[in-house]
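User: Please fill in residues for this 81-position structure.
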């Protein structure tokens, strides 16, 4: 991904890659915010919301993809609201 693309757009592109995997199981992910410290806040929706495996999905799929494409990101965390 090009350096001239804003961080928010890069994160959205990374989420677009992982989104079909979540949607296969009836879930989804949406970007809520990116802090100045590089923390990406996302909301898991659909069947992912409240799923006992949601934290594993967040770390092993969502965070892994975002960190791969956006090295400036420090971590990804889920928010409820």
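Assistant: Residues filled in for all 81 positions:
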């Amino acid at each position: 991904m090009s350096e001239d693309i804003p961080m928010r757009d890069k994160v959205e592109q990374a989420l677009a890659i992982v989104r079909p995997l979540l949607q296969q199981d009836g879930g989804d992910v949406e970007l809520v915010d990116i802090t100045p410290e590089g923390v990406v806040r996302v909301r898991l929706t659909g069947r992912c919301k409240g799923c006992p495996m949601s934290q594993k999905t967040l770390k092993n799929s969502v965070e892994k993809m975002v960190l791969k494409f956006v090295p400036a990101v420090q971590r990804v965390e889920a928010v409820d609201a």
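For context: The helical segments are 7-24, 54-69.
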